Amino acid sequence: MFMILILILLFIIISNIMMFISMILSKKSNLDREKCSPFECGFDPKSSARIPFSLHFFLITVIFLIFDVEIALIFPMIKTFKLVNFFLWVKISFFFIIILLLGLYHEWNQNMIEWTN
């Protein structure tokens, strides 16, 4: 019983020493302001939060999410090719691709894809 108590006390002392050493070694210096400031997508985090944000960034993000979901919906169509009726699969796939192409045409027509506007 006494030996277990000594082992537990030894473990506690060793763990406290290790935590103290890691705390001393991991001290950060406040010498460089840029390294200590958070990175906010190229914006200065110390300035006003009411800077107008370009709507084009938002539109590009939405377009990316739409195409990402489209890819996630196309993968199961490939897997079900051999499991369902071929003509039904072709009709559904064709309909789905036409909807995607119409969406792409609309985005192109609204100049959402052109970055230099």
Automatic annotation (TrEMBL):
User: Which residues are in coiled coils?
Assistant: none
Please state the Enzyme Commission number of this protein. Answer: 7.1.1.2
The UniProt entry, under Pfam families, shows:
Oxidored_q4
Describe the reaction catalysed, as an equation.
Answer: a ubiquinone + NADH + 5 H(+)(in) = a ubiquinol + NAD(+) + 4 H(+)(out)
Q: Which UniProt keywords apply?
A: Electron transport, Membrane, Mitochondrion, NAD, Respiratory chain, Translocase, Transmembrane, Transmembrane helix, Transport, Ubiquinone
Any GO MF annotation of the entry = NADH dehydrogenase (ubiquinone) activity
Q: What is its main location?
A: membrane
Q: Does the keyword Membrane apply?
A: yes
- Segments spanning the bilayer are 6-25, 55-78, 84-105
Where found in the cell?
Answer: Membrane; Mitochondrion membrane
One Gene Ontology cellular component = NADH dehydrogenase complex
* Membrane topology summary: Multi-pass membrane protein
Answer yes or no on keyword Transmembrane helix: yes
Protein function: Core subunit of the mitochondrial membrane respiratory chain NADH dehydrogenase (Complex I) which catalyzes electron transfer from NADH through the respiratory chain, using ubiquinone as an electron acceptor. Essential for the catalytic activity of complex I.
PANTHER family per the record? NADH-UBIQUINONE OXIDOREDUCTASE CHAIN 3
Question: What family does the Swiss-Prot or TrEMBL record give for this protein?
Answer: Belongs to the complex I subunit 3 family.
Write the protein's name: NADH-ubiquinone oxidoreductase chain 3
The opening ranks of the lineage are: Eukaryota, Metazoa, Ecdysozoa, Arthropoda, Hexapoda
